[in-house]
Amino acid sequence: MIRYTLRRLVAVVGVLIAVAAVTFTIFYVLPSDPAAAACGKSCSAERLEAIRAHMGLDEPVWRQFWDFVSGIFTGRTMGSGRYTLHCHFPCLGYSYENSEAVWDLLVDRLPVSASLAVGAAVLWLVLGLSAGVVAALRKDTLVDRALMVGAVGAASLPVYFTSMMLIYGLIRVAGLLPYPRYVSLAEDPGHWASNLLLPWLALALLYAAMYARQSRSSMIETMAEPYIRTARAKGLPRRTVVVKHGLRAGMTPLLTLFGMDLGGLLAGAVITESLFGLPGIGRLFYGALTTGDQPVILGVTLLAATFIVVANLAVDLLYAVVDPRVRL
Fold first, then answer.
1. What are the backbone dihedrals phi and psi of residue 178, each rounded to the nearest 5 degrees, phi first?
2. In this structure, are 33 and 133 located in the same domain?
3. How far is Cα 259 from Cα 187, in angstroms, rounded to an integer?
4. Which pLDDT band holds residue 106 (cuts at 50, 70, 90)?
5. CATH code, domain with 163
6. pTM of the entire predicted model
């Protein structure tokens, strides 16, 4: 298990270095004037000169890349003389639009996006797995068809349409929930959950539909395996056969899907956060796209890649727990 974990860690480091190289090339090498792109849409000549000094564009490309990567781990001093700017660890760049380090902007928004992603993930796992398992065990019955029709319908609706319908039905008509606003979990757990329930539902309905269909097909395939028939022949209770033997093997394909989805959402749900006015990373990213704030776009890209890679590492380790054959 230790050797397996070390191999996965080496692979993760390699992927992150490759991601850093690709993003550096896109944001620093390909643009005709990276400083102008980093400065945004409105930039004075003096400020543009300062940004060129900060980015070290007069240095060789390999030196720029080394400063870029090393700054992530140790921080860096950008520019010199009157243009000196210190970017603390981990340095993902400096937002000239916000006059603030990109990492500070991300850390300020991360609790909102993390609360949204984790809460929605719990809901869609419970709803999706439950619907998929029930549909698989009631294959070709009315229950199976009804659940799958509902799943297809939920997956077909754009998240912005679902969000608007939930806002209209549960807030304006029924008055059951407050309009979402972020409240810290440490400050008031009750208000934290009640204010995020609507965004959780909007995301969970979309993802649960996909998980229901995937878990149904996985469970149908697993329940037809010879070892399941052997377990039934031994007289094991139906619940033990389904949960311990069937679900454990059937959920393996879902782990990969879950790692990708959760990792992506941790870096912000752009549409959901914008619709509900939540100050998360997704909303920050949308604002950066609007104003052309390149350092923030770069920082969010690196953060999203890191979350996805780390989530997939966790999935690989869970594979080894769920299915010991993976260790071989």
1. -75, 160
2. no
3. 29
4. very high
5. 1.10.3720.10
6. 0.83
